[in-house]
Specification:
With about 1900 residues, this protein is of the alpha+beta class. It has 17 helices and 103 strands. The strands form 20 sheets. Strands 49, 50, 51, 52, 53, 54, 55, 56, 57, 58, 59, 60 and 61 form a 13-stranded antiparallel beta sheet that branches. Strands 90, 91, 92, 93, 94, 95, 96, 97, 98, 99, 100, 101 and 102 form a 13-stranded antiparallel beta sheet that branches.
């Protein structure tokens, strides 16, 4: 060994340390970076450093791969599925926290764990590469592990940081200790290998730990870390750093030597290598602080630098020369004079004033200097400019004018002072005083100069003393380090001596023990041992000889040598200790003088500080005195607070007592009123039922008459088909004409009619299916007088039939030339007609077998629909014929005369618009009527959706007619309002244009009615406008009193042919309103807008509009309508154009009706319009754009502006593939599906919802199989085969496409322009919810959707003072609890919250809420809340219902106020927020401005309504219910996040079969005997009258359907022998009502049952009614809970013990749906269609557990059959231990069997040739035999051999079917998703498994059969 010495080679040689048996060299050589070789092992201990934040994953070309940090497992994960297959190298890169000086890590360990996720069968090990790479000091060293990781297994790496484990990356040469230490001294990079296998799907890295030596470490001692004796100038354990005042010159050994900085005493920091000084002090500058910095003078090398006196302490010089008292300054620009005491020409100011300076003159004098006064800045010497006449002087603002006035005033005062001074006589005494004052001034100046010089000298002395003190400190530090080193050496020697002494003592003890043992042995030999432990005599001689031999050996050993060596070591140690003590004493004598000098200097400093200490003591005493006073004041304040709190508590208790008494009286009165109403309702119901019984026979007789009318429907269908063909011809004509730009208005009109035709066709198709919707008329049978109506309808139907035949004959004559072209289509329609006849016949047969009398009503509805269709058809044809003629004529005229005047074409278009206005309102009204008739028909909901979409298209077409309407003083229109009237309650924004004719044309335009928006009862809420005395007047009323405002400008008069119109914009936010009036807004030079504010002045804040009675009259009004007094004027004469209403475009041509309006006589007005290149998408529709399908390089482009967080921009589809470009959370995201794989996503972090222009380009390279999406400078690149498409959508998609692809992104709201496609510019012709301009308010964001725990915060809102505070907002939610609004200041916090559905107002200093609403507000409707604090006190308004008390807001500060919306689990929407502010007029709060958000989506309201019944997730035991809190209603199953690729991979689902859909909202009962749902009844539904309703479908003859109560008092509904029986029991009395007909026919039946007072009711399907009373006038009181199905206990013996088998839906109490589910047991979705044998696992997830039912041994066979609906999920799992289980699962369509034993695991897979989604049963067989795992899927096989040493089958293992419980998810399985589909015929070892006897069914599983398909 080369680094050891001594006789036994056990001492480290000088220059080395730490004797280690594992080190081949014995000891480690000192490195100390070549400074010296004196070192020893450190006393520090190891500590592991771990920081997993910031790790990155890079490819070989340094490209970043996205990673995510998992805080739960403290690991970093990267998804590699998007990584190209050509990438075979990726490395983990360490963050900065692992880099830098890591010398103390030498000898420590670098540990980490990595894992490569994927399918082990597909993963191939890549070539060998370095596992660890360290970089630093221009060197790169690597380490390679000898072993390789295994796929899909955790791989642990542990590397010791020593030179033997590394080699150079470039040459492969070994690394020396010196090289490793250099790398560690400045570690610049740590890279860990990440990619080991091909086909890796995911990588994870965790637990990266680097050991360091630390004084606070708790690990083992860091023996390998050296502690060097560093000379002055070096720091660090290995002298790797330089001390302050030194730098490394890079010229010495290794990393260089530390050299003192040359900074002339002005800095102790300088750059390594160059020695340039850093941060020069004392006003110096330069590389070595060798000169004074700018504006200073002096000697930086030998003295100090002072500020230049230019002029005084203000230094405005770049430098100066001072000789004695003479100063010569080099002035900065703008200053002049010897000491820079004046401003240069062109500048003004006073440099001699403290803080003064010179500034450039602010005079527009063509750049000439000297243009202002040098002190005041007044502009002087202004000369005429020689520029052009267009140039003008800068305008003077108000500040300049004020300053000039002040200067003029000061000038006058100075002239007055001057005159006064001139009047004084210069007497001798006055002159003497002046001279004396001058002398004193000079003396004072000299004293100040002397004082300044003295201060400067003292400063120099202080600098010298500081430098001497710093040198002494450095010497002391060096001396202290030497003392510490010698002390450590002495301590080490002392420790060695102690160890030697201890060893000697231990040896002595051992010898004594041996002697004692010998004595004991001798006693045993001699037999004198009292305990009888004698040595056997036979072995005595042998043992004695052995003992003598041992004694001889002991005597022969000599310990004297060891004793002498120990004494010698002790003497050496004593000598060394004496030498050290003498050396310390010598040095102490040498340093005594130095210490004395330092002590003297310190005494001087202490003397100087004594005065300061005295002053501090005085200040401390005063502070203590003040603290005592404050403490006494605090005690007094606390006492006062306690008294106030006690008074408040007493007051609140008294208030509670009063409120309790009031509520008791109120409940008593309410109860009396309800009893009276109940009696009246009962009497009416009895009379109605008696009359219904008498007329029952008449209705049955009339039923047969209705059957003969079936042919009418067939004829109506044929008629509709003929109309459809004619409409197609018209569409072709329209398409040919639509390309002409000058006829676009006419084309819009024709498009409206085309949409109407489509609506008619859909309505007629819906009418054909109307006979199957008989359930919608059940409730009207009793109420309506059907016999009389039936006779009337019978006669009407005969007339209608005749009219239909005549119309059909006439239509055939008109279209006879086109019959040949339609022959093929008619054949297809004939076949469809036959099918419809067959369906009608089947329906007629079914109707004959059902004893109901609602058929006549249904047929009457069908007749009414057909009659409406015929009427609409006639009107459409009458309107279409002239339009077709006009379009053709316009096209011919325009084609022949291309250069005619545009006014001619505009006139033709106006004629078409005139004709459109005649028919459009009536047609829209009739379509609306059909829509209302179709709404109750649930079975044709798809047609209704389509009809609604077509109606919306027609209304959009009407809204696009942006033409002013001319009113003649007698006419008017009623405009159709939007559906969302709730939004108008809190916020109303109406914009319109007005014009009146010139007085020479028409007189009497001084007083006119303009508009009225409000209820038909004009005394209630409304908004109105009128012209009074030629000026516009605006009036609005919110319920109490009117508020009025009149504009001070007269309404513009102009010609009607080229009208100049004024723009009026009315905006109201709660009770505040404003009016923006722009005169001549449509002219080329509009006037400046004028703003007017107004307030209602009453306590109401909402505009309450009744949807049934609201009207919007413009221009005129009907004769029977009485206007409010302030609007009661004659109708309007002039032109009016509506612009928008609440940011939505609105047109006068979208009207419901007109009054005296004939557009053929009164031509519309024309006005100048600026063409807009923008299209506004309202967020409700879309634009459909055709494109060239087979273009080789399709390109699409648009420029967008938006402020919303989410929106759909671009969508294209073909079959099951699609491309969707969306805005998600303000960024651009692409979702696409290009093949059979699940949809994928790519996004770019680039905010596009900031309201600015963002250009988006979509380029498709079909040959390259690439698609590029560019947004501004960002780019998204997508690889794959792009499909062809001939149509794409902008801004949204139709409902059918949205449902087909499950698209949840809402439609886009914002502006688009520069629309381009492959063939050129895009013109939007086929649109819904798109207009040709963007309103000025489109950027305003008034609503936001809050996810759970989402919140929106605002700061710096400049809120109002507390005595005039108002906060108002609207909200919608289904959640019972959450924070709505929080207004927080430094001293208080005002909160509006939801608590159990009640609204509460709280403050921080209140223990109970100030207000609490009596009602709940969780119905999902829009409710408005206002908190107002004014002179009348504090009040809370909820939907304008006030709550008041004497409380007032206090402690509200005007500073640091924050506003927060949402939080504390609130989930819903908040809109129309208003906060009263100081600096701004009342306006709605823009939620996108000055806000920060979390979990909030701006720009819309997406509210998920909870379903009526929801299958509960999770575990439900056989006899235990899963309990829920009623305060947490059930939510919809959360949809899979579109950003999670893993979820999409696991959710690959088959296409749903046509008849396998679950009935909407229906649930199946009876899978277990105690199958049930448990409901809690809300308090507001607990009434004396309890009528339940539910729909039942069953084939069972017996079972319990409904139960509530106890054994003695109950209410129940059950099946007995197929009939429904209602049972009521109370006080030992019973009542049973039984249905007359059986209800177990497998069809749906509606059952109404319950009690009304003393009577019980049972009504089946609306007609078969039974009623009765309990004997003795007994009553039953409804109590919670309520069960559907069979409860587990508390049932009377007279009721069936088990639940019925069947389905239920639409459970209601007193006509209100019940959704307060508290528990669910064995309830699954109800499937329509027939079922077959098997187990059905629904999509909600679930599984079955059969405990201890399987013997898993060396030979095992499992057989079962599957019919999946999802291609990923667990099928079977046997076992519950990690070392002994078998699992069969599907993953993306591949079936895999895996076995895990104690010796390891094996798996085998089968990928079927055909998809398992074919609707057939597939057999799966798994066999384990002779260490071979065999999997068979139908006829396809797979084998895998391996070691499976299962022990003999001795214990029963559990069998999990369809999934596994949560506690087993620690097993290593790639799939955790539950199985979705059907499963049957399970056999284990040839024995069928009795699944129906399973005792643990968890989740949604049906054991009673699978849907047959």
């Amino acid at each position: 060994m080369e680094n050891v010495e001594g006789t036994e080679c056990n001492v480290c040689r000088e220059g080395s340390f730490y004797l280690d048996p594992a080190n081949p060299k014995g000891c480690t050589r000192c490195f100390c970076f070549g400074i010296n070789n004196n070192c020893h092992s450190t006393h520090k201990r190891r500590a592991k450093f771990v920081d997993m934040m910031g790790w990155r994953l890079e490819t070989a070309d340094r490209a970043d791969i996205p990673v995510s940090f998992n805080p739960g497992s403290s690991s970093v994960v990267a998804d590699l599925q998007e990584l190209p297959s050509t990438v075979h190298s990726a490395s983990w890169v360490a963050p900065l926290s692992y880099l830098g000086d890591k010398v103390s890590s030498y000898g420590g360990y670098l540990t980490y764990q990595i894992k490569s996720f994927g399918l082990p069968g597909d993963m191939v090990l890549l070539e060998k590469k370095p596992d660890v790479q360290l970089t630093g000091q221009h060197m790169s060293i690597i380490h390679e592990e000898p072993n390789n990781p295994r796929p899909d297994r955790l791989y642990h790496v542990r590397v010791q940081v020593v030179e033997g484990n590394f080699r150079h990356a470039s040459s492969g040469a070994p690394v020396s200790r010196e090289e490793l230490m250099m790398v560690l001294s400045r570690l610049e990079g740590v890279r860990l290998r990440g990619l080991y296998f091909t086909e890796t799907q995911r990588l994870s890295l965790s637990g990266v730990g680097l050991e360091e030596a630390s004084a606070t470490g708790s690990g083992r001692r860091a023996h390998h870390v050296e502690m060097c004796a560093c000379p002055p100038g070096y720091t660090g354990d290995s002298c790797q750093g330089c001390s302050p005042g030194y730098y490394r010159d890079s010229k010495g050994a290794y990393t260089g030597r530390c050299v003192p900085c040359n900074c002339n005493g002005h800095s102790n920091r300088c750059q390594d290598g160059s020695g340039i000084c850093i941060n020069c002090q004392h006003n110096t500058a330069g590389e070595h602080c060798e000169r004074c910095k700018e504006g200073h003078y002096g000697n930086a090398i030998h003295g100090h630098c002072s500020v230049c006196p230019c002029p005084h302490s203000n230094s405005f010089a770049t430098g100066c020369v001072v000789t004695g008292e003479n100063v010569r300054c080099s002035c900065k620009p703008g200053y002049t004079g010897t000491q820079c005491e004046r401003c240069a020409p062109g500048y003004f100011g006073n440099p001699q004033k403290l803080g003064g300076s010179c500034r450039p003159c602010n005079c527009n004098n063509n750049g000439q200097l000297g243009s202002c006064h040098p002190l005041t800045g007044d502009c002087i010497d202004q000369e005429p400019k020689d520029g052009s006449p267009g140039e003008e002087c800068d305008d003077c603002d108000s500040c300049v004018m004020t300053l000039l006035n002040d200067l003029a005033t000061m000038g006058d005062e100075l002239h007055l002072v001057k005159s006064q001074l001139q009047g004084l006589s210069a007497s001798t005494s006055t002159l003497e005083q002046m001279k004396h004052l001058e002398t004193q001034t000079k003396d004072l100046r000299n004293q100040l100069l002397n004082y300044r010089s003295a201060i400067s000298n003292h400063g120099l002395k202080m600098d010298g003393l500081e430098k001497e003190l710093s040198n002494l400190n450095r010497e002391f530090e060096a001396l202290q380090e030497k003392v510490q080193i010698n002390s450590r050496k002495a301590q080490t020697l002392h420790n060695n001596v102690d160890r030697t002494t201890q060893s000697t003592k231990e040896l002595d003890t051992k010898i004594k023990n041996v002697i004692r043992n010998v004595h004991i042995l001798l006693k045993q030999i001699s037999g004198t041992d009292g305990e009888g432990n004698n040595v056997p005599s036979g072995d005595f001689s042998r043992e004695l000889a052995e003992a003598e031999r041992m004694m001889t050996e002991l005597r022969s050993r000599n310990f004297g040598k060891h004793l002498r060596e120990a004494e010698a070591e002790k003497r050496d140690a004593q000598l060394l200790l004496n030498r050290i003590r003498s050396w310390l004493e010598n040095h102490q004598v040498e340093n005594s003088a130095l210490v004395k000098n330092i002590r003297d200097s310190l005494n001087e400093y202490e003397a100087k500080l004594s005065d300061l200490r005295t002053a501090l003591q005085e200040a401390t005493a005063q502070a203590k005195q003040a603290t005592g006073l404050n403490r006494e004041n605090e005690k007094t304040l606390e006492s006062i607070k306690r008294q106030v709190k006690e008074m408040n508590s007493l007051q609140s208790d008294f208030t509670k007592y009063l409120s309790t008494a009031d509520s008791s009286l109120l409940q008593t009165n309410t109860l009396l009123q309800l009893m009276g109403k109940s009696q009246e309702e009962y009497e009416k119901l009895a009379a109605t039922l008696n009359e219904a019984r008498r007329e029952l026979s008449d209705k049955v007789r009339e039923l047969s008459q209705s059957a003969s009318k079936a042919s009418l429907v067939v004829e109506a269908e044929t008629h509709a088909q003929s109309l459809q063909k004619l409409a197609k011809q018209l569409e072709e004509i329209k398409r040919n004409a639509s390309g002409d730009e000058l006829v676009r208005c006419a084309v819009d009109a024709a498009t409206a009619y085309e949409n109407i035709l489509n609506a008619i066709r859909a309505a007629e198709d819906a009418a054909d299916k109307a006979t199957s919707a008989s359930e919608s008329a059940l409730q009207t049978v009793i109420k309506e007088d059907l016999p009389r109506k039936a006779k009337t309808l019978s006669s009407d139907s005969d007339k209608l039939l005749k009219e239909a035949k005549l119309t059909q004959k006439k239509l055939r004559q008109e279209i006879s030339p086109a019959l040949n072209n339609l022959q093929q289509t008619l054949k297809v329609m004939t076949v469809q007609k036959g099918l419809i006849d067959t369906n009608i016949t089947a329906i007629r047969d079914d109707l004959r077998g059902i004893q109901r009398d609602d058929i006549s009503d249904m047929i009457s509805r069908a007749k009414s629909m057909v009659r409406n269709a015929n009427d609409i058809t006639d009107e459409v044809l009458d309107g279409l014929n002239p339009i077709e003629t006009d379009v053709a004529r316009i096209k011919d005229t325009y084609g022949s005369t291309q250069r005619e005047d545009f006014n001619k074409a505009l006139t033709d278009a106006d004629n078409s618009v005139k004709k459109l206005t005649n028919k459009l309102p009536d047609i829209l009204s009739k379509i609306e009527s059909i829509n209302q008739q179709l709404l109750p028909l649930g079975n044709i909901s798809d047609n209704v959706d389509r009809i609604r979409e077509l109606i919306q298209q027609a209304r959009d077409a009407a809204n696009k007619v942006a033409v002013p309407m001319r009113f003649n003083g007698k006419s008017g229109v009623e405009v159709r309002l939007p559906d969302d009237l709730d939004d108008l309650k809190g916020y109303t924004s109406l914009s319109l244009f007005l014009q009146r004719p010139e007085s020479k044309e028409n007189g009497g335009t001084e007083n006119m009615f303009v508009m009225y928006l409000g209820n038909k009862d004009a005394s209630r809420d409304y908004i109105g406008m009128a012209v009074v005395d030629g000026k516009l007047t605006c009036v609005y009323n919110l319920g109490e009193q009117e508020s009025e405002l009149q504009v001070d400008q007269s309404l513009t008069e102009s010609e009607t042919q080229e009208a100049v119109m004024d723009r009026v914009k009315f905006q109201r936010i709660y009770q505040f309103a404003s009016l923006n009036y722009t005169k001549k807004a449509t002219s080329s030079k509009p006037e400046t807008p004028q703003f007017h504010d107004m307030e209602s002045g009453n306590s109401n804040t909402l505009l309450n509009l009744d949807p049934e009675n609201v009207v919007f009259y413009v221009g005129g009004y009907p004769s029977d309508f009485r206007l409010p007094a302030r609007l009661r004027f004659p109708p309007y004469k002039g032109c009016i154009e509506l612009d928008d209403l609440n940011e939505n475009v609105l047109s006068l041509y979208n009207f419901k009706k007109t009054f005296n309006l004939n557009t053929t006589e009164v031509e519309p007005c024309r006005r100048r319009k600026e063409e807009s290149d923008k299209n506004y998408f309202e967020g409700t529709g879309y634009a459909r754009v055709p494109t060239q399908p087979n273009a080789p390089f399709p390109t699409f482009g648009q420029t967008i502006q938006t402020t919303v967080d989410r929106g759909l921009l671009f969508f294209a589809e073909n079959q099951d593939r699609f491309i969707s470009l969306n805005i998600e959370d303000g960024n651009l995201l692409v979702r696409y599906k290009l093949n059979s794989e699940p949809p994928k996503e790519k996004g770019v972090t680039h905010t596009v919802n900031n309201g600015k222009d963002h250009s988006i380009q979509i380029k498709i390279g079909k040959a390259q199989k690439l698609m590029w999406i560019n947004v501004n400078s960002k780019k998204i690149r997508i690889e794959g085969e792009i499909f062809d498409f001939g149509t794409y959508y902008l801004g949204g998609i139709p409902i059918s496409i949205r449902e087909r692809f499950n698209i949840s992104t809402p439609a886009f709201r914002g502006c688009m322009k520069n629309l381009k496609k492959t063939t050129g510019v895009v013109r939007l012709n086929d649109t819904v919810g798109v207009t040709k301009k963007c309103s000025e308010d489109w950027k305003l964001v008034r609503s936001a959707s809050f996810s759970r725990d989402g919140q929106l915060s605002f700061t710096n809102l400049d809120l109002a003072f507390p005595n005039h505070f108002q906060a108002s907002f609207g909200f919608q939610t289904f959640q019972p609890s959450g924070l709505l609004l929080s207004h927080q200041t430094e001293a208080n916090n005002l909160q509006v919250t939801l608590e159990d559905g009640h609204i509460e107002l709280n403050t921080r200093d209140g223990s109970s809420p100030i207000f609490k609403s009596p009602q709940t507000y969780t119905d999902g409707l829009l409710h408005y809340v206002s908190v107002i604090n004014d002179d009348s006190g504090l009040r809370l308004l909820i939907d304008d219902q006030p709550l008041k008390n004497n409380h007032r807001l206090r402690h509200l500060s005007n500073s640091q106020q924050t506003l927060r919306l949402g939080g504390s689990h609130f989930e819903g929407c908040i809109s129309n927020v208003f906060i009263q502010r100081l600096s701004e007029r009342p306006a709605v709060l823009d939620l996108a401005s000055k806000s920060t958000k979390r979990g909030v989506s701006l720009g819309g309201c997406s509210l998920n309504k909870p379903p009526f019944l929801m299958l509960l997730r999770g575990s439900t035991r056989f006899d235990k219910a899963h309990t829920f809190s009623i305060n947490q209603p059930l939510q919809d199953t959360p949809a899979a996040s579109p950003r999670s690729m893993e979820v999409w991979r696991e959710a690959q689902s088959c296409r749903p079969p046509p008849r396998a859909q679950a009935s909407h909202g229906a649930l199946r009962f009876g899978d277990r005997p105690t199958s049930h749902l448990l409901f809690t009844i809300p308090q507001e539904l607990l009434e004396p009258r309890s009528l339940f309703a539910v729909d039942v479908r069953t084939a069972s003859s017996r079972g319990l359907v409904f139960y509530t109560g106890t054994k003695s008092s109950y209410m129940a509904l059950y099946l007995s022998k197929g009939r429904l029986i209602f049972a009521l029991g109370a006080e030992g009395k019973k009542l049973r009502l039984k249905s007359k007909e059986k209800c177990n026919d497998g069809k749906w039946h509606t059952v109404v049952f319950g009690q009304d007072g003393e009577k019980g009711h049972l009504v089946v399907d609306g007609l078969r009614a039974q009623e009765g009373s309990l004997p003795g006038n007994s009553t039953f009181g409804l109590r919670a809970p309520v069960y559907l199905g069979s409860p587990p206990s508390w049932k009377p013996k007279s009721l069936p013990p088990n639940s019925f088998v069947g389905c239920l839906r639409n459970f209601q109490l007193n006509l209100k749906p019940l959704n307060t589910i508290a528990a669910s047991v064995a309830v699954s979705p109800c499937l329509s269609g027939s079922v077959e044998k098997g187990i059905y696992f629904s999509q909600e997830g679930g599984h079955i557990i059969l405990a201890n039912s399987v013997l898993l041994g060396p030979e095992f066979k499992l057989v079962f059959s599957i019919r999946p609906r999802s291609l990923t999920g667990i099928l079977m799992h046997v076992g519950s231990q990690s070392g002994k289980h078998l699992c069969v699962y599907m993953e993306a369509g591949k079936v895999t069997a895996s076995v895990d034993s104690e010796a390891g695991g094996i798996l085998t897979s089968v990928t079927p040739k055909q998809s398992l989604c074919d609707g057939r049963w597939h057999s799966v067989t798994v066999t384990v035999k002779q260490h071979i795992l065999h999997l068979e899927l139908d006829t396809e096989n797979s084998y895998t051999a391996g070691r499976l040493p299962f022990p003999p089958a001795s214990t029963q293992e559990p069998l999990h079917i369809g999934g596994i419980p949560a506690h087993l998810k620690t097993l290593k399985l790639p799939v955790w998703k539950s199985f979705f589909g059907c499963l049957k015929n399970i056999q284990v070892n040839h024995i069928p498994v009795p699944v129906t006897e399973a005792m643990d069914v968890q989740g949604s599983v049906s054991l009673n059969g699978c849907p047959d398909h």
